[in-house]
Specification:
The protein contains 13 helices and 14 strands. It has about 425 residues and is α/β, with parallel strands linked by helices. It has a domain of about 100 residues: Four Helix Bundle (Hemerythrin (Met), subunit A) (Up-down Bundle), CATH 1.20.120.640. Strand 3, helix 1 and strand 4 form a beta-alpha-beta unit.
Length: about 425
């Protein structure tokens, strides 16, 4: 699947600091510790109701990590999926009276426009489930060959049985989330699971292949029969194909810790890969009107709506970066207003002829970003330089350009 346009990154003097990042399984901030090419997989959207600010916060966060890795001298192989066939998408298409492929196409186009406006670097591989269907089928076949699957019978309205992963074959279940079984069961049903399905060996066993139902899209699965994938197997199959075993970073929103990342990892273990990823990194959830911003609740603030109202996309990105990615927070109109005011001052400062020296600022920015993506600290350092510039001036004619380049290269904020 075609991704959005590539964004150029200005060159900066010197080399950045290798980033350290909070790893969910260990509960500690750890070095990414990548080789010459860092490998990163970030779970993409199910394309309906995109792109709300919760989405945007996630992809901006991993864009900062992408930029930090590149600044530290790494090449980055970045893969992102898009769940362009799944129950929520089909249900929304039926509700709105549109074909599910048209809904997916239109929402993917909108997502690309939003990512372009927010200066998010595109992934090297942007992969839809539909185009990766054979990868998924091959992965499910391999799980079956490994003795890690079982069938659950359906009634006569279905074209064969459904296929599930047998979690008894995955000894590391819980290694990603560190959750108890009770905690897992508490949310499994509301996060796409089917704990009450008759015939399952374990309430938590995830669906791998859903047999064809009348009126639903399906693909020929060979020995699996006609059907379509369950949710989690797509990311296991796509990540292992494009990044190989035990890649560096698995990323996404905090609501993906369980079950999605837990199940993706369990499936990979049953395919002979552990760990699935060496670091699991998660963006905290964003709220609006007192509740988590979510499609199901409908309390969404969309990037496209803000842009249509005249908001500067650079200010939207700045507003998101004012909050640390691991801190839950609630969007209010003042977030954008304050960011627009700060952005105007930054642009004024980098347009002067001479300004205070900026080499120390570059050191501070690199250190803040490398320290678990501390973007609030990085922005505060720039605010201080801007205040000094606009109140006291300076004598360095190259400083304004350097500050503009570092804001662009490290933070994706084009002044």
């Amino acid at each position: 699947m075609k991704t959005w346009p590539q964004t150029s990154i200005p060159e900066l003097p010197g080399t950045g600091v290798p980033p350290r990042i909070f790893d969910t399984p260990s509960g500690t901030v750890r070095p990414v510790d990548a080789g010459p090419t860092a490998t990163m997989y970030v779970c993409g959207v199910t394309p309906y109701d995109t792109t709300h600010l919760g989405h945007a916060a996630t992809y901006v966060t991993f864009d900062i990590l992408n930029r930090a890795l590149r600044d530290a001298g790494h090449e980055v192989r970045y893969v992102q999926n898009v769940t362009d066939v799944d129950d929520p998408l089909l249900e929304r298409a039926t509700r709105d009276g549109v074909h599910w492929t048209d809904l997916a196409r239109d929402q993917i186009t909108l997502f690309h426009e939003d990512m372009t406006d927010l200066a998010v670097l595109p992934p090297e591989h942007y992969v839809g489930v539909v185009e990766a269907m054979q990868l998924v089928i091959d992965a499910v076949d391999a799980l079956t060959a490994a003795g890690a699957t079982y069938a659950v019978a359906n009634d006569d309205t279905c074209h064969g049985p459904d296929l599930y992963l047998d979690l008894a074959k995955a000894s590391t279940l819980g290694s990603v989330s560190q959750w108890s079984r009770e905690d897992m069961l508490g949310v499994f049903g509301e996060r796409g699971g089917d704990p009450g399905r008759p015939g399952k060996r374990d309430k938590l066993d995830p669906l791998l292949w859903r047999a064809q139902r009348d009126g639903e899209p399906s693909w020929e699965g060979g020995d699996l029969g006609p059907g379509r994938p369950g949710w989690h197997i797509e990311c296991t199959a796509i990540a292992l194909h494009f990044l190989g075993k035990s890649f560096d970073i698995q990323g996404g929103g905090a609501d993906l810790v369980f079950p999605h990342h837990e199940m993706s990892s369990a499936q990979a273990e049953c395919l002979g890969t552990h760990p699935f990823a060496r670091r699991f990194v998660h963006q905290a959830l964003l709220s609006y009107d007192g509740h988590k911003m979510s499609k199901s609740r409908g309390n969404l603030v969309r990037v496209s709506q803000l842009r249509a109202q005249g908001a500067d996309s650079v200010a939207i990105r700045m507003a998101l970066l004012r909050h640390h990615y691991r801190t839950e927070w609630e969007w209010v109109d003042a977030d954008l207003t304050n960011a627009e005011s700060a952005l105007a001052r930054w642009r004024q400062a980098v347009s002067v002829n001479t300004a205070p020296d900026a080499e120390a600022l570059l050191v501070d920015l690199r250190a803040a970003i490398a320290d678990d993506l501390d973007t609030p600290k990085a922005l505060a350092a720039i605010d201080h330089w801007v205040d000094t510039c606009l109140t006291s001036g300076g004598h360095n004619p190259t400083a304004p350009g350097l500050v503009a380049r570092m804001c662009d290269a490290l933070l994706g904020l084009r002044l």
